[in-house]
Amino acid sequence: MNANHDPALQRLIDQVLAARDARQPLDIRGGGTKDFYGGPRSGEPLELCELTGISSYEPSELVVTVRAGTPLAELEQALAEKGQCLPFEPPRFGSGSVGGMVAAGLSGPSRAAVGCVRDYVLGTTVLNGQGEVLTFGGQVMKNVAGYDVSRAYAGSMGVLGVILEVSLKVLPLAPTQATLGFEMAQAQALRWLNGLTRQPLPVNASCWHDGRLLLRLRGAQAAVEAACRQLGGERLEGELAAATWLGLRDQQHGFFASARTAAARLWRLSVPAVTPALALPGETLIEWGGAQRWLRSDAPAPELRRAAALAGGHATLFQGKVAGDSVFTPLDATQMRLQQQLKKAFDPHGLFNRGRLYPEF
User: What domains sit in the chain, N to C, each tagged with a CATH number?
Assistant: First the structure.
C-alpha cells in the first residue's frame, strides 16, 4: 500500500502522527459491530470506513488480499461467486468489517473442525504507533516470512496497531452437508461428542442446548450420506438447518437473544473438549465438540474463572460488563511482561485502543 497514491491511507497516517505528537489516544473503528466486546472504548475515533476493496484475489491459489474496512459480507459474496469461503465462519454481527474480524479473532461453529481466524492469516499490512506502514508475511503459503507477526494481530483487539490490509487463505465450499438432531442430556452429549472424534466422520460443527444436540456434516456426498446412515437421528431440512447454523454463527440463536435481554451476563468458557459438564449455575450452550461453553450466569467472576482454570481453560466475559470488570482472564506476571513488550514494540506511545484488551495497556 502506497500512501502517495492512496488518500484514505494518507489521512490515517496523518491522524496517527498528530496523535503521537499530542499523545492523544485513538479508537480504531471499523464497522462498530463489536463495541460490546472487550474493555471500554476511549480516544479519538480512527475511522477505517474509507479503506475498502479487495486488492487481489487468486481463486486458483486459494488466497485473497482485502483492505481492512471492507464489509465482511462483501468479501464473502465475492468468495461465494467463485465457490469459496472463509471456512472458520467469522461472526458478522450485522455489518462487521474484515479488519474487525481479524482484530477480534472470533470464529464460528466450524472452528473445531477447520481452525480459527489466526490459522488463515497469511500476511498483514499495518500502521504502527510511529505512523509507519509495515508489511508482514505474504500472499501465498510458500511466501510467509514474518508469518507469526501477522498472526499476532489476530485477536489483538487493535492494541498493536491499525490493520490496513490482510491476506487470507480461503477454501472451496463443501460439496454436501447435512444436519442431524438428537435428544440427549448434556453429560451424555459430551461423552458422545468425544467418542465421535475417534471415528473417521465428516463432522464439521456441533451444538448442544436445552437437551438437544445438533451435528453438521460436511464433505463429499458419499461420506456425508454414509455418516448419516451410521449416526441416525433426525435430519433437519436444508433451509431450517442453514438458518440454525447461521443463527449460531451470528449469535441470533434464541440462547444469545435471551442473553442480551436477561440480567445474567454472558460468559465464554474455553476448556478441553473432554471436560465433563461443569457444575455452574446458569444456562449453557456448548459448541466445538465441547471445547466452547457459553454460559448465561450471574455467578461471581472468580467462581467462573476458577472452574475454567481447574478444567485447564479460561473464561471471558463476553457481554454484560460493568465498570471495573476484567473481560479477559488476567495474565500472570510473565505473560503480562511479554504482552507489554510486544505492545511497546508496535505502539510505543500507547495510542491504540487503550484498555480494550487489558487495562494495563
Answer: 3-172+340-346 (3.30.465.10), 176-249 (3.30.70), 254-319 (3.30.70)
